[in-house]
Amino acid sequence: MKNRKLKLGLLVMAAVTVFTATAFAAGTGNEGYETLKQIMKDSRGKEILTSASVDGTFRISDNGKIVTELNGRVKADHESKESSGNVQISLKGRQQDLSFFQNGEEVYLSDETNTKYYKLVNAEHGKYGKNMEYNKEDYDYAGDHEMGTAEEKLIDYLAGDLKSQIALTRNPDGSKILTMDLDQNEIPMPLNLLTAVAVGNKGIDQDSSDRTELDQVRKQLLAEKLPFLKDYLDIDNNLVPALKENVKLAALVIKVNVDQDNQIKSFEARVSITGNDAGGTYHDISLQGSAAVSDINKTSADRFNADGKNVEIINAEDFKCSRE
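Given the sequence above, the corresponding structure tokens read:
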């Protein structure tokens, strides 16, 4: 069974972030709101990124104690179809350092913690992967699409009172910081209702028996082919407790940094959800993430050097399971 509680928490954070980002997109309330609306408009006319580096972090804590934490860096060059990255994972005291390298259809995984190396073969994109391949001509329309009046009014309506909650800081170099920091008394009621429904909806991740069986088969195959995953696959499902009563958003923080050309350089988000578990114990669960973009259209992915390394072959075909 998947970690239902963790997924519910991630769902809430994603929903809140999307709602808030939408609220950021338009409005006529104050300088911060107007500035962010202009940033959104300017982004419509910017050239599509062909390459970039992204540094990201994600952390979940319960009553101030870190439950899991991820830190990573990804380099991607869409035109050359190359990418690489590294991620450090801390999960209930267990540490793992992983790297990946992709050059077209060639994929390598490097288990830095245990000094093990793997090559993934037959990793076909399939019908979904083809849609993700970079084709510059497919994006030529993006710069021509402007925010229409009807679209702007709709988003403005959805934003509601959040218009007055965006603070603007102008730096001497022309860059800007836009921040929205809401406590439990400032968070709109619809977001609190969304949180309560999402956390309390037990059916949101109820897998059918055949799906659960498939998950177990894939889990076993992953543990056999990639031993470094075993500890994480075997860890119990209760990373964070299920909140049953008095569930609400206690804090919502969004921060966006842009340069002098209104190019978004970094994004931070933090959501705190409070409530009581089935035993009546109070919990303050915090989900916090950030991402920073650099080397735009100047990034080159790292390549795997197999010299002197014992590389194990993993056939992606082995992970294709069927319900039939």
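The chain is about 25% helix and 35% strand. Try to locate this feature in the token string yourself.
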